[in-house]
Amino acid sequence: MKILIVRFSSIGDIVLTTPVIRCLKTQLDSAEIHYVTKVQYQSILETNPYLDKLFFLRKGLADLINELRVEKYDVVIDLHNNLRTRILKWRLGVRSLSYNKLNVEKWLMVNLKINHLPDKHIVDRYLETAAQLGIKNDTLGLDYFIPEKDEVPWEWLPDPHRGGFVAYAIGGQHETKKLPVTRMIELGTQINRPMVLLGGKEDFENGEIVRQKLGDTVLNACGKLNLNQSASLVKKSSYVFTHDTGLMHIAAALKKEVFIIWGNTIPAFGMYPYRTKFHSLENTHINCRPCSKIGFDKCPKGHFKCMKEMTFDFQVE
C-alpha cells in the first residue's frame, strides 16, 4: 500500500505527526510511506527512517500535484486539512482520510469560553484519523532524529555548562506566547542553574539582555544554531523550559522533562508535551484565556496578565 501523509507546517505540528508515520510503517505489511510538507521543514523529516520518500511544497500547488500524481497513491492522510490540502486531495482523486481540526469547538472556547473540546491529545486524534487503515497507538510517543552532523559536542559548551544545564527555548511564533524579557530574567534567576537560551535570530537581542543580567552561567545560542543543532542541545540538557512552540514538542520527542510556559493558549487545545513528564506554568486566575488558538503580536486587552502576573511555582532537582 502506498500512502501519502500531508502536513505543510509548522515545526511542532510536523513533529506531532511522527507517531502516525511510525505506526503506519511498522504495523502495515509492505507499506510505502511518503510525506509532503513545506520545503523549509525538510530537516525535521529527512532522517526519519520510517519514511520512504519526501515531497516539498515550494511555491504553488500545480508542480507539486504533478509530482504526486505520478506516484499513484492508494490513500492520502491529510493531517492539515486546509484549503490547499483539500485542493491537493481533489486533484489527486484518490481515497483520503482527513483530520478534524475542531474549528467550531476552538472558536467556542476562544470567543465564548465554552469548552466542548475533547479531553484528548492531538496526537491521538491524528492516529484516529489513520485508524481506518488498521493501525493502533504503539504508545512510543513522538520521534525526532538528529543527524550526526548536527550533534553539538560537549566541548562547544562553556565550562559551567558541561556538568549539566537547563535549556530555555525563549522564542515563539507570536508575542503573546512569550514571556516579556523582564520575566525571562526573573525565571532565570529562579532556575538558578547554567542555562542555554535557544531560539532564532529574532530572539538574539532578548537573549543578550537575559545573558547580561544573569551573567556567565547563561549561554545565548539564539540564532547561532540550526533546528537540529538546537535539538541536540535539548537532548543534552537536564530540563527544558519552553513557551508553547516547536521546541516543546521536540523536547517531548527526546523524552525530556518539560516546564511549559502558557500565555494566550491553553493545554486544553490538546498540544501539551506528549508522553513525557511535564509541568504547566500558567495564570489560571484570569478569564480572558485563551484569547486565540494561535496568538497575537500583542495582548488584545492591553494588560498581558497571562504572562505578567504568572506565578513561577516550580522546583528543579
Rounded mean pLDDT score:
97
- Main structural class: alpha/beta
Indicate the CATH architecture of the largest domain: 3-Layer(aba) Sandwich
- Characterize the overall form: globular
Q: Using DSSP, what is the number of strands?
A: 11
Helix-strand pattern: EHHEHEHEHEHHEHEHEHEHEEH
Number of helices: 12
Q: What percent of residues are in strands? A: 15-25%
Biggest sheet strand order reads: 8-7-6-9-10-11
Q: Percent helix among the residues?
A: 25-40%
CATH evolutionary superfamily of the largest domain: Glycogen Phosphorylase B
Which value, in Å, is the CA radius of gyration?
20 Å
CATH class of the largest domain: Alpha Beta
User: What can be said about the biggest beta sheet?
Assistant: 6 strands, parallel
Distance N to C terminus: 48 Å
- Ranges where pLDDT stays below 50 over 5 or more residues in a row are none
How many distinct folded domains?
2
CATH topology heading of the largest domain: Rossmann fold
What would you say this structure looks like, in words?
- The chain has helices at residues 11-16, 18-27, 42-45, 61-69, 83-92, 103-112, 122-130, 181-191, 204-214, 227-236, 246-253, 305-308, and strands spanning 2-6, 32-38, 53-57, 75-78, 95-98, 166-169, 195-198, 218-220, 239-243, 258-261, 278-281.
- It has 317 residues and is of the alpha/beta class.
- The protein folds into two domains: 2-133, Rossmann fold, CATH 3.40.50; 148-308, Rossmann fold (3-Layer(aba) Sandwich).
- It has a six-stranded parallel β-sheet, sandwiched between helices. It has a five-stranded parallel β-sheet with strand order 3-2-1-4-5, with helices on both faces.
- Helix 5 links the parallel strand 4 and strand 5 (95-98).
- Helix 4 runs parallel beside helix 5 (83-92).
- The longest helix has 11 residues, at 181-191.
